[in-house]
Amino acid sequence: MNKDNKFSAELLKIASDSINGSTTMLLNLLDTIEKMQKNNINIADYKLMFNSIIKSQSHFINLINITRQILENISDPEAISNLITTVRKYYQTLFEKQANIILENTHKDKIKLLTHSNSSSIKNVVLQLKDKVKNIEIVQTVSTPGDEGKLQADFFCKNGLPVTLIDDSAVANFIPEVDFIMSGCDQYDKTHYVNKTGTLNIAIIAKYYGIKLYVLCDNYKRTGNLSEKIKSKSQCPKTINYNLEKIPIKYATEILE
Predict the structure, then answer these.
(1) Is the pTM of this model over 0.85?
(2) pLDDT value at 102 more than 50
(3) Can you give the pLDDT at residue 5?
(4) Which residues make beta-bridge pairs with 216?
(5) Phi, psi at residue 217, to the nearest 5°?
(6) If you write DSSP's letter for every residue of the chain in order, what string do you get?
(7) Is the distance from CB of 85 to CB of 197 less than 8 angstroms?
(8) pLDDT band at 225; cut points 50, 70, 90
């Protein structure tokens, strides 16, 4: 596969990604563009593929916002390089800030938390916590449909963290045992945030038991027009698979941004 085909494949993979979270896809996009620049690839030749990412992943606000900025500066390699550096530094600082806020509110040397779906933000904040807390135990949902929670559980295991993988339907049995819940966020406004389906159930149960729910957001994900992506399949009986859902911010202990 020549270089051009390789980069086309990497961009197509981002456009069709249904497993990773929005921040993972965004960072993958930045990595791909940086490789293209190092290989003297003319990024302007890939306008159609960038537009394909915007169209197919329109519900992931941070990915779309940055992709649009890339298109606006498509003929200015230096501006794109500066954008990549700025975005990376922003997330690196944000993950550390979010971890510190959680620690300030926990005050424990040993913590147990519950996570859902497969989120780069969650994974990075957990790694920050790992460097600051002696013992961390994680309860991870399978996260249907898609079961991408298994990928996040594998990530935690590979990084030396003990993980209990549970069915989504079992969260009510485990939530009373955890110190807090960490949720990702694909987009948000003043009243709601959007995340993987199943998050609303977790939020409601957490509220019932008085367990803290921290939502990891960032400024690139703020929007004035929340949207949810739904896949449906008509048959008898009709089956509808919800990938994303809106959760009232009132259920969150704190929106970390």
Answers:
(1) yes
(2) yes
(3) 86
(4) 256
(5) -120, 175
(6) --HHHHHHHHHHHHHT--SS-HHHHHHHHHHHHHHHHHTT--GGGGHHHHHHHHHHTTT-HHHHHHHHHHHHTTT-HHHHHHHHHHHHHHHHHHHHHHHHHHHHHH--SEEEEEE-S--HHHHHHHHHHHTT-SEEEEEEE--TTTTTHHHHHHHHHHTT--EEEE-GGGHHHHGGGSSEEEE--SEE-SSEEEEETTHHHHHHHHHHHT-EEEEE--GGGB-SS----EEEE--SS-EEEE-EEEEEGGG-SEEE-
(7) no
(8) confident
Q: Which residues face 180 on adjacent strands?
A: 113, 212
Cis? peptide before 237, omega within 30° of 0: yes
Q: Are the C-beta atoms of 227 and 215 separated by less than 8 Å?
A: no
According to CATH, the superfamily of the domain at 93-256 is: Translation initiation factor eif-2b; domain 2 (3.40.50.10470)
Contact predicate 21/61, CB 8 Å:
no
Give per-residue burial for 48-67: e unless 16+ CB within 10 Å, then b.
ebbebbbebbebbbbbbbbb
Look at residue 56 and tell me whether its pLDDT is greater than 70: yes
pLDDT at position 1 over 70: no
Residue that the structure tokens 């298109």 belong to: 71
Distances (CA, A) of 66 to 8, 29, 30: 18, 9, 9
